[in-house]
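user: can you give me the structure for this one chain? tokens are fine.
assistant: on it. calling the predictor now.
[tool input]
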Amino acid sequence: MATTYFRGPGKAPASAANVSPSAAEAAAWQLFSAHTADQSALWFDVPSSRLYQRLGAADAASGAKLVDRCGSRVFVAHPTRNRHPFIINDNVTGRPVLCFGAGGAAPNDLNNTFSGVLHDALGDNAAGLFAPDTGWSLAAKVRVPANGATVNGVAFSTNTGGCVLGSMGATTADASSFLEFDQSNGRTRAYNQRSVGTTNQFYGDSTDRRDGLWHDYVITYDDVAGIYRCWTDGALAGTVTGCTTDIPSAAGSDQPMLGATTDTGGYAARFGGFLACLYWLPGPVLNGDDDRATTRALMATR
């Protein structure tokens, strides 16, 4: 696969010199524009003209960079795993997407051990992405293959799913997973390690999403009301009420990660599947029907 390079400064769509925002981008940008200076939001999508990258399948990990279009954070291949996801043209949407967890070519041969984890190049969360006690919103468009399936010409083994956005905690108890597909049953989850074993303190549903189809997900945590909500393809998939543990409270200053959740001693739930886009916002703003519809309209173009 040919190497591709970013052609602009890695800024937000409203200010990037290399590309004019589409109508869907311009509408969604109203949700993100206030978060550029403090880097408290994430905007990832995969069209190659909008990325600063060396994310071809055969590219060495040392050249891999993915730029957050909102706060201009630079994500790089994590040195412990020394692999990165690569861009592939999806056979359903016809658009470029990130492949984690399988396939690739030397020196970036991805498999279930080396899934292609990316982390913030700063190595920490000094800018406060996971601010405590604010609640949060996440939206992502994800395709999780069935175990053992071949999708987009890439053969996956028996460990698809895993964590799409997580944090690297100082201890295992601090690590968080903001969107995960349980690798034992394919169910959507969001949790921190301090609360995952406690009733009503984390989100989890009962549907196996390892179906090889594209789905868009919106998950919110309302810290004031103590409610997790998850919408899948626009329909409310479930709520969890009576929550008292905000996921970012445990994450604190943790560095964000794409494709895994972990503590400083290792990795957990490394992702195997495809990612078209991912967006993170402070506060439960995507509880609002209009803002959620605006975000879903953007995901539909990815």
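assistant: here you go. The chain has one domain: 26-299. The chain is about 10% helix and 30% strand.
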